[in-house]
Amino acid sequence: MGFRKDFLWGGATAANQCEGGYNEGGRGLANVDVVPIGEDRFPVITGKKKMFDFDDEHFYPAKEAIDMYHHWKEDIKLFAEMGFKTYRLSLGWSRIFPQGDETEPNEEGLKFYEDIFKECKKYGIEPLVTITHFDCPMHLVEKYGAWRSRELVGFYENLCNVIFNRYKGLVKYWLTFNEINMILHAPFMGAGLYFEEGDNVEQVKYQAAHHELVASAIATKIAHEVDPENQVGCMLAAGSYYPYTPKPEDVWAGRQEERENYFFIDVQSRGEYPAYALKEMARKGIEVKMEEGDKELLKAHTVDFISFSYYSSRVATTDPELLEQTAGNIFASVKNPYLEASEWGWQIDPLGLRITMNDLYDRYQKPLFIVENGLGAVDTPDENGYVEDDYRIDYLSKHVEAMRDAVDQDGVDLLGYTTWGCIDLVSAGTGEMKKRYGFIYVDRDNQGNGTLKRSKKKSFDWYKKVIATNGEDLSN
Ligand code: BG6
Question: Is 94 in contact with 27 (CB distance < 8 Å)?
Answer without folding.
Answer: yes
